Amino acid sequence: MNSILKSVSRLTALKSLLLPAKTLASMSQSQAQLLTTRNLWYMSTLQSQKLSAVHNNLCGCGCGGTKQGVHTKAEKELVEFLTEEILAERKAQKVTTIPTEIEGFNARLNGAEVTLTKKTDTETIKISFNVNHSVDTDAEPEIHENMDKPDIGELKSKPAFKVDLIRADTTVSVLCSFVPPSEQDDGYNDAFGIDELSIYNGEWNENVYSVTGEVLDSYLYDLILNYLEEKGITNEFVEKLSNYSTAYEHSAYIGLLEGLSKFISVK
Questions:
Q1: What is the DSSP secondary-structure string of the chain?
Q2: Phi then psi for 105, rounded to 5 degrees?
Q3: For strand 170-178 and strand 192-201, is the pairing parallel, antiparallel, or unpaired?
């Protein structure tokens, strides 16, 4: 890649990183942070892996530039960027085949929704979560003005998840979320905590009473965590759930990029 094309590539990446203030202002804080982190990670990965994709003035959609006037300048640039981005993401992908089972739980995937189910003679345990907006870095990004390769940590998906314990027509539902390392006290290092607890018969509806974990008696809170641990919902299991969610979210992200590339390329 010659120096001019390197500059174009770097500027393209910077354009996507330095979003207009108007766009960032319309996003939630978590969405803006995630998008910035994704772009920083992409720039870092692209530089470290030194992708050998060849750029030229032809379309990146496969038409070979023979259909003059079919694609606009913006479309060509977007497809070329997406081609490079997909290559980088696939090179960084740690899991290419999403397992159908995790620690005895059967997995069912439906778009961004993931449901893990285990049945015993007496009950059904169902864990459900959504991978949307669930990605964060393990550490705060260290960004300096003169850094060529920002240290942004590893992208991890840590979604809130619901544990349903079902016996006959009755369901005990426990909504949980990951505890940030900064909030884990010495000697009390649970990887997840209880956000909400409810119990109901039949289907859940808005009239079902629920209580937040913040107002639960502290001893009852610990006993429920112990109860979940007996059901297999341990710190170790939740870490595996995070790894599973990370792999699936990354796969979904690549699928989104490929779908966008295909949409832009087809005329």
A1: --HHHHHHHHHHHHHHHS--HHHHHHS-HHHHHHHHHHHHHHHHHHHHHT--PPP-SS-SSSSTT-STTSS-HHHHHHHHHHHHHHHHHHHH-S-SS--SEETTEEEEEETTEEEEEEE-SS-EEEEEEE-TT-EEESS--B--TT-SS-B---EEE---EEEEEEETTEEEEEEEEEPPGGGPBTTB--SEEEEEEEEEESS--TTS-EEEGGGS-HHHHHHHHHHHHHTT--HHHHHHHHHHHHHHHHHHHHHHHHHHHHHHH--
A2: -95, 130
A3: antiparallel
Which segments in the chain show pLDDT lower than 70? 1-70, 137-153, 184-188
Q: pTM of the predicted model, to two decimals?
A: 0.72
pLDDT digits (tens, 9 = 90+) for 88-145: 999 999 998 999 999 999 999 999 999 999 999 999 999 999 999 999 866 555 555 6
